[in-house]
Amino acid sequence: MSEQPPYLRIADELRQRIAEHVWEPGDRLPSRAQIGQECGVGENVVRRAQELLISQGVLEGRAGSGTYVAEPRERVRVVRSSAREQPSGSPFRQDMKALRLQSDWESRTDAKVPAPAEIATRLGIAEGEPCVRTTYEFLADGKPVQLSTSWEPYAVTGGTLVVLPEGGPYAGAGVVNRMAEIGVTISHAVEQPEPRHATAEEASLLGIQKAALVTHIRRTYYSDDGRPVETADIVVPAAHCEIVYEFPINR
């Protein structure tokens, strides 16, 4: 039988110390050099062990500060369903309300951003055409659980009251409801989920390790005449969220 890799042994040791309350949630771990000296391994081995535990939600890394014992948190259930688009507003808010969690989000909108090649293809427009780009960080009880970058063709919403997704009288109403206000009826959405590793920027925003797994969802909304009117890249951390797809059954 092959010997257990050193980083797995160290991960087990760190996990055991947490279980025995040597370190409590919120405590900052000693430096990698100190842990390595205590356990008889190099700093790279400790780093790999910590990265594994961060990806599992046991530890959390804080840029420029160190590594901490993560506060216990249940995985958030994120439902993907056409039934979640309601006139009352955000599907995310509905999900969090069902879980009795306080929902909120931070956003930034930039108008007339040239469409990159991939986004242009997804929206059926020419590369470089102006779009309204909005980035989101969604929070559940104050903790980040989802990122999203939304692109809408400026030709669709420009000059209307809904041009800014998070500004004006229809701020936060959701894509379907906002588009309805300017006479655009969304008939369906297409989603393409795939697993991958978080980028450094995503990891920093979500409070996870760079190597942690996320689910990347490419979602595009289509109007009833088949025109793409919005596309988004949604990033959900696997350690903190479970994604559930719900399908209505037509009889």
Brief write-up:
With 251 residues, the chain is an alpha+beta fold.
Taking the sheet with the most strands, its summary is: 6 strands, antiparallel
Secondary-structure element series: HHHEEEHEHEEHHEHEEE
Average pLDDT rating: 88
Rough shape?
A: elongated
Query: Could you give the count of β-strands?
Result: 10
The neighbouring-strand order within the major sheet is: 4-5-6-9-8-7
Structural class: alpha+beta
Oligomeric category: single chain
Strand residue content: 25-35%
Helix share, percent:
25-40%
What does this protein structure show overall?
- With 251 residues, the protein is of the alpha+beta class.
- Helix content is 27%, strand content 34%.
- It is built from eight helices and ten strands.
- The strands form three sheets. The chain has a six-stranded antiparallel sheet with strand order 4-5-6-9-8-7. The protein has a two-stranded antiparallel ribbon with strand order 1-2.
- A hairpin with a 2-residue loop joins strand 5 and strand 6 (143-153).
- The longest helix has 14 residues, at 6-19.
- The protein is elongated, with a radius of gyration of 21 Å.
